[in-house]
Fold this protein.
Amino acid sequence: MGIELRRVTKQLGSETHIYETNLVLESGEFNVLLGTTLSGKTTLMRLMAGLERPSSGEVWHNGENVTGLPVQKRNVAMVYQAFVNYPNFTVFDNIASPLRVARVQADEVRRRVEGIAELLKLTPILERLPNELSGGQQQRTALARALVKDAALVLLDEPLANLDYKLREELRDELPKLFQDTGATVVYATSEPLEALMLGGYTATLEQGRVVEYGPTVRLYRSPGSLASARVFSDPPINTAQVEKRGPIFFLTESVHWTAPAGFRDLADGHYTIGVRPHHLTIGGIDQGVVKVRARVLVAEISGSESIVHADVEGNLWVSESHGIHPFEVGDIAELFLHVGRCLYFDNDGSLIGHQADTASRDRPH
Amino acid sequence: MLKTANQKAWYFVVPVVVLVAFNALIPLMTVVNYSVQETFGDNVFFWEGVKWFEEVLNSDRFHDSFLRQLAFTGMILVIEVPLGIGVALSMPRKGPWVSVCLVLMALPLLIPWNVVGAMWNIFALPDIGLLGRSINALGIDYNFTQQPESAWMTTVLMDVWHWTSLVVLLAYAGLCSIPDAYYQAAKIDGASAWSVFWRIQLPKLKRVLTIAILLRFMDSFMIYTEPFVLTGGGPGNTTTFLSIDLVKIALGQFDLGPAAAMSLIYFLVVLLVCWVFYTLMMRHEGQ
């Protein structure tokens, strides 16, 4: 049940927009498509909606092959980054429009529109026109149009990207709740890892037209199956470096090394890649399970109660993120704690070797 | 109140003031000067008050050319605006044909007005012109130098050929600025092409169409060169529009007083119509 892409590809001319993709999104779940611009989020959504036909492969919805079915025959709703409403319809008529196309009775339309308007706090502005509304109200109207249809598949394409910070926070909290009881498959595209974490549910990480990984959002963040997935799902970007294992010791350089954590001792000697999330490379903090590294500061920024330092660590350009205010000048030498026990270790094809179970519970997104 | 310490900024405005004075204010005041006085040459003027205005407003000749002008402008607006929107809707939105279409559309706009008049004059001649001969070959008696209906049809056709492109280009620009998401949303709603036009495209084109209609109104209301070259205002007075009439009075008969009064009335009518139209169109616009 839900929406299923079976060996779907999408090509336009000589360009491949989506490489062969298999993806099952369960109904009643909140699914996030996470990836940068041009990673294929929107194309994937258009394929799910039926706005585009896949070049090959099949799209299944609730156990039915809908590959060739035109979009108006499917029960889908979509909300965009731009605030899309009919410009010369009032808010009421805008919300009512999908029902009217479906020829629902007038009193039934009124009942449903008013119910949705109440839920989205649009009741006082039902008689206004879209260009008399704030951005937040316009997007609420667009969301109401999507909700009122009782669509089985709801596609939200970066719906909050054009809103200012406060409205974004507010709507982000409401969104999963709004769709919770509808039983609809909700797909939400975003380019912000933090947004994916806050929305919860399931996440698919996308990179250059490929779905890298799909799974429960928190699991995906804590132990991404591959380096590519970890790269997509990290903000600030994840730090990586080549390390060499010799016996029970990992060497970053000859002078920076640490004993392999439990579970990695039996690993064959050789080269590996470590992934260090910026908040696992800190100024001070706990000194258990850490290795101290010297870093030359390149850029130092303070965002509220966090200090973000871009630094040269043994020839690698790394980012460190720490609690508290730590002022640095460019060129300063800082001593950073590298939390080797919480690093992600990848083999040479970039797949995760394993993540320590005991640290997973303490490891939380900042 | 705060006193501005440095007043030098005013110097920057001087060039604009001088320019406006020379290209608008001084010519306009000359006309005002003529419109309220009588002159017999030698720079001797006699005060006449509003006599010329009364004369012009009460003359049948002015009424006739004013009605002719309204009929002409009305006709070309009714033809050019819907036609322009139609052509813009059928133009491709992407691909190599976009530039071809745009250049083809821009071509008539690049031709000087008197050339357009001369072209259509020859084109429509009943004995040697392609258009004139073809129409006559179909068995329709057509001669724009002798029949008022033929003269009107040719003048309107010429204006439609010359200026529909402007509406097309403006409407096309407006259509291109509608985000794709609107069309997708309409498709998901299951809206028909007809309702996409009425509910999305037309409302979104409102602003550019307001501009297009205003420009076409002003230009056609002041049209001179093309009908002057094509028909010279004839046959008889049947295509003598306001500008042609004005020139006849001012330079043909050298009645400077009535001509000046007519110019001012003409100017005020254009101004008034534009203002009323714009105010009405923009009344329901939000912010």
User: Anything to note?
Assistant: Residues 355-366 of chain A have pLDDT under 50 and may be disordered. The radius of gyration of chain A is 24 Å.
